[in-house]
Amino acid sequence: MLQYILETSVYPREPEAMKELRQVTANHPWWNIMTTSADEGQFLNMLLKLINAKNTMEIGVYTGYSLLATALALPEDGKVMQFLIILAMDINRENYELGLPIIQKAGVAHKIDFREGPALPVLDQMLQDGKHNGSFDFIFVDADKDNYINYHKRLIDLVRIGGLIGYDNTLWNGAVVAPPDAPLRKYVRYYKDFVLELNKALAADPRIEICQLPVGDGITLCRRIS
Length: 226
Ligand SMILES: C[S@@+](CC[C@H](N)C(=O)[O-])C[C@H]1O[C@@H](n2cnc3c(N)ncnc32)[C@H](O)[C@@H]1O
Prior knowledge:
Blueprint: H1 2-10, H2 16-26, H3 31-34, H4 38-50, E1 56-59, H5 65-73, E2 86-90, H6 93-105, E3 112-116, H7 119-129, E4 136-141, H8 148-158, E5 159-168, H9 186-204, E6 208-213, E7 219-224
Parallel strand pairs: 1-2, 1-4, 2-3, 4-5
Antiparallel strand pairs: 5-7, 6-7
Family: Belongs to the class I-like SAM-binding methyltransferase superfamily. Cation-dependent O-methyltransferase family.
Organism: Linum tenue
GO biological process, one term: methylation
């Protein structure tokens, strides 16, 4: 079914730059476990346009596919305070630089403020400054699953009321419904409980409305309501 969706509506309408970046990623050794899928990229691109997002954040860039999908969707006039419109964080700059020439060629690199390093200290600094509370329209989290709960504790104060946080991989390769003795890859098994814990915490959080979508590996959208 996914192949049908990809072939009928995703691949034919995928912007050339996103296609090109997907090719770069496909040659990277982490591709299989790391990359955001084409249907997710297209979904993010449309979602951002629908909510008229201007000020966004991404945690977990890798080679930049979801970042490019975001940058292509955002308007030119999104600068808020000292940030450009996408604050993008990753512990690895090398991978970001693999995709960067394509992002530059697409004419959207100026929308990105890339910070190399772990995201949590940057979030803590922003919260301490107090200037960015409630300022983000959209935040996409696609990084270390064992920190998602820690991200959520901070992001809830940084996203604006009515804004969205999207957590990626909340179906975790289907492992969220796998029996305890299921033969899972080591990587999948290691993070499974963290994803389950996150899903439970989001479902019980009264500060958000949530919607879990089977797009890509599962995205949970959280709309801040208080
Ligand atoms: C699944 S990949 C991101 C995929 C990307 N969104 C895309 O479109 O292809 C996860 C990324 O999170 C990064 N990462 C892991 N731990 C991190 C941390 N503590 N802070 C920021 N980034 C982190 C990894 O280096 C990796 O590039």
